[in-house]
Amino acid sequence: MIPSDPITLALSIILCLFFVLFFFGWKKNAYNLPPGPRPLPIIGNLHILDVNRPYLTMHELSKKYGPVYTLQLGVEKVVVICGYEAVKDALVNHADEFSGRPKVPLLDEMYKGHGIIFSSNDKWRAMRRFTLSTLRDFGMGKEAIENKISEESDFLVQKFRSYKGEPFNNIKNLNAATANIIVSILLSRRFDYEDPTLLKLLKMIHENSILTGSPLAVLYNTYPSVMRWFTNVSEKALRNVNEMHAFLQETFTIHRKQLDVNDQRNLIDSFLVKQQEEKPNPQLYFTDENLTTLVSDLFEAGMDTTSTTLRWGLLLMMKYPEIQKKVQSEIDKVIGSNEPQVIHRKEMPYTDAVIHEIQRFGNIVPSNVAHATTQDVNFRGFLLPKGIQVIPLLTSVLYDKNHFVKADEFYPEHFMDSSGNFVRKEAFIPFSAGKRSCAGENLAKMELFIFFTRLLKNFTFKAPPGTTLDLTHAVAYIAGPMPYKMCAIPRV
Fold this sequence. Notes:
51% of the residues lie in helices and 7% in strands. By secondary structure, the protein is α+β, with helices and mostly antiparallel strands.
């Protein structure tokens, strides 16, 4: 447990740090790292960091130190890259050099370098190739998956209607709806929204998003040897991961018994077939550990990011009812009594602009997933060492005032020209960019359009009487809005 007296806690941490430094020494900087704020002994720059929302501090520091600077967390140096031009330079123009993943203690303990999100080198390449090809095989970007999303939209609309215009929290229902889409690809099944297994899985994912984005996680990742004595953040996160993995492993056992090589029903079947084909190979990538973590990665990412974006979308529609009316007017004009299809998007420039602006303003992965250099690299006049942690700050891209004139506001016109046509923005990279960009980007775009338009076709969203709508980002790894209730008023 953490000592209740903050002075006792601080002295304990300092004493332990001196002990660690005595044995391991300070890291020597033999490279030409970019300048940054002056670090203090032991704590580095932690004293200036907003540990609840570190991306805000990082973005602000770029105004003083430029688009590439060094931040020191404890004794570890981290390179922060800000602004669209610099981030693109790193992730696209130097894609191979910046395609690694750093050893982040808490995430390393949770995922152990398996799967697709936190793996590196040849293992990551094998998992990404397999994931991209398999998602395509099972309908990503195709009519089959669009039909599944439309069917799931029916269930979601029915669920919203059941509240009869009374206030409710939409987290559980949106999580369940988006989870069912990725589950259909992974497991060939669908969960009822009240299914206890699904609710338990969603609860664990939500808890871990909060845990891994918390101030305690920042401290744990900076001083893991010390902080494990003062916090159970690692223990809680690992408990959730292990429970989810136990559920998945039980599912894999069933799939193995029913596996038909000539009738692969889902991603798990395809992985198990690859596993059989790989057995003679001494370098095994299609292991049970990789299967468990890969499915967990895709389930978490496929559900949490899309549902969080939709939660931002509904909140913003309540906050700006005039924008909601314009979207509904376009829906009525283009779609009418039909159901939304992806093909309608080209005829709906305003709705398309609103969805893009929801993603930009929502900024749900503000710090990005940390990268690492795979080799020594000359970058913008600096020599960065192999393995150094790099943060290509998505906040600084999506809120780059050189590309978005009203970056701090919700302004759909960012994506429209003076004639009302939709305009693409090169700095719009909510899925990141380069070789580590989101593998499910096309699926997410399809889900966002169909779910969003279906909901606004059927309902007008209003805040409960007397409610003040807060656009502050919650403290979590996937940064959704603060919890809120809404009223879904059926449209006549």
